[in-house]
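Why do we care about 3D structure at all? Because function follows from shape, and shape follows, mostly, from sequence. That is the central idea of this module. The next example makes it concrete: a single protein chain, its amino acid sequence, and then its structure expressed as tokens.
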Amino acid sequence: MGTRSVREGHIAVVGGGIVGLALGIEALERGNQVTIIERDDPPRGASVRNFGHCCVTAQGGIGLDRAIRSRRRWLDLSAQAGFWVGETGTMLIGRTDEECQVLAEFADRSSLPVDLLGPDQTLNALPGFAATDIQGAALLPMDLRTNPREALHCLQRWFAKQPKVTWMGATNCTSASEGVVHTNRGVIEADRVFLAVNHDVDRLAPESAHRFGVTRCVLQMLRVTPAEPMKCEPALLSGWSLLRYKGFDACPSLPLLRERLSAEYPEMIAADVNLMATQLPNGDLLLGDTHTRSQFPEPFSNEAWDELLLSHGARFLGQSSLMVRERWQGVYASAPEEFLVDHLDERTTAVSVTTGIGMTTAFGFAEDVLAA
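And the structure:
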């Protein structure tokens, strides 16, 4: 289908998560009137159920370019909208020879700064982090953190107050085509419509979901209180994280690491764990996460998987125990490609970040979508 670069007019965005907000903010800056249609009020989806981690450095390809541009936007918007974004970096902990080798290879290949640390340097950088099996670490200083429970809602409230913006919360879209959006609160007409509904793209654009191979990825996550006080400003990532991010794919030692982890921890492989943590202002940790994929996932959490997160998380963090305060599931769109852009007709486009890196790449992605 043909498309028109978005300059001035009325833009309607269905979905008020981070991708939808990013599209709305970019469209407003291009001089458009913007209407955002969000079924919840405030949004309750993946954008508030995550780690609040903008993992810029570990991306690859177009994802890295979009992450770098998103980083600048996060810092600018935090000042404008009044929410916290910390230039805290990410600390990747190496606990085996294979993990440290991958970290060294990544540091050598990365186009962004990567600082390799020894065990003592790592412990000095993380007060109260008492793990005894650290062999080294890599600090990724370009990465950011925010509080996911506050950032999106603060950004949404700020955006809704801007001139030329209409925020329609608690409004469910039932269909959209040719610039007309049908909702449970009436009909909205716009010059361009963007469907930014994350994994629910199959509800509004089923042919797009089928063509791009979109399914749902369900995460189990925990908020925990560590038994011993600790302070970790950076996001903390483990060797399991090296298996997930595109930036590590070209490291020659990655297959050896995957082989070792698969042999030693088959239960972690079965749960598709990315063991990592970020700290909230009160000292609690967001700990996760497991992954399972299905077009129509079961609504039930697996307690054995939560126990895996707790046992391996305590060892990773050097804690005697972790007290669970909250449990939840996150859900995001998953597909073979990282990004979905499908022009359904001349005025309607379905968009989604389909690898769980929406917080990291949304603003750069929005720039590209609206410039096309």
